[in-house]
Every structure is written in structure tokens, then in C-alpha cells.
């Protein structure tokens, strides 16, 4: 087994970097690599945060997931209510004038 390893080592060729067509990667590839690295890092952090959150207290995690959906709905309902009450108060003010 050891003799086979030495035979394989003797057949290896030396890698010469000056013969390769791309010695330095283009700036776009470097930039894309950094963005992909950040994306993977932050997505893994985000997903692991949900796993950690769901595990011990899943009821609180459910509230945390539902809140971003419910709060805008409450804002829209409040805006509709405000617009309706303003219109009704204008009508009643005109009726009393």
C-alpha cells in the first residue's frame, strides 16, 4: 500500500499558476461571492432563530409570526374608520348649519 502511494506521488505534476488563464478572478465574481456568502449567512441565522424561537415556547413564536400580518390590517381598518367618521361628521355639520 505504501509503495503504491509513493508511485502516485512520483507521477504528480507541479501546478504552475502563471499558465492558468484566470490568475485573478474578475471583480464581478468576487463581489457576487461576497454577496452570496452574506445571503447564506443571514438566511441561516434567520431560520435558526425561528427554530430556536419555536422550540421552547411555540405560542409566543406564533404571535411573532402573526403580528406582521395583523398590525397592517389594524392600521387599514383604523384608517377606514377615521375616514368614515370624518365624512359623517362633515355631513352632520352641514345638516346643522
From TrEMBL:
One GO location term (cellular component): membrane
Organism: Solanum verrucosum
Name this polypeptide is given: ABC transmembrane type-1 domain-containing protein
Lineage: Eukaryota, Viridiplantae, Streptophyta, Embryophyta, Tracheophyta
Molecular function GO terms recorded: ATP binding
Domain of life from the UniProt record: Eukaryota
Keyword tags: Membrane, Transmembrane, Transmembrane helix
Record-annotated membrane-spanning stretches: 57-83
Keyword Transmembrane: yes
Amino acid at each position: 500500500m505504501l509503495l503504491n502511494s509513493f508511485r502516485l506521488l512520483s507521477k504528480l505534476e507541479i501546478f504552475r499558476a502563471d499558465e492558468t488563464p484566470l490568475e485573478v478572478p474578475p471583480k464581478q465574481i468576487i463581489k457576487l461571492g461576497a454577496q452570496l456568502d452574506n445571503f447564506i449567512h443571514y438566511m441561516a441565522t434567520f431560520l435558526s432563530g425561528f427554530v430556536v424561537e419555536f422550540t421552547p415556547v411555540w405560542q409566543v413564536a406564533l404571535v411573532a409570526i402573526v403580528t406582521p400580518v395583523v398590525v397592517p390590517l389594524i392600521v387599514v381598518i383604523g384608517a377606514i374608520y377615521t375616514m368614515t367618521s370624518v365624512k359623517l361628521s362633515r355631513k352632520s355639520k352641514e345638516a346643522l348649519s
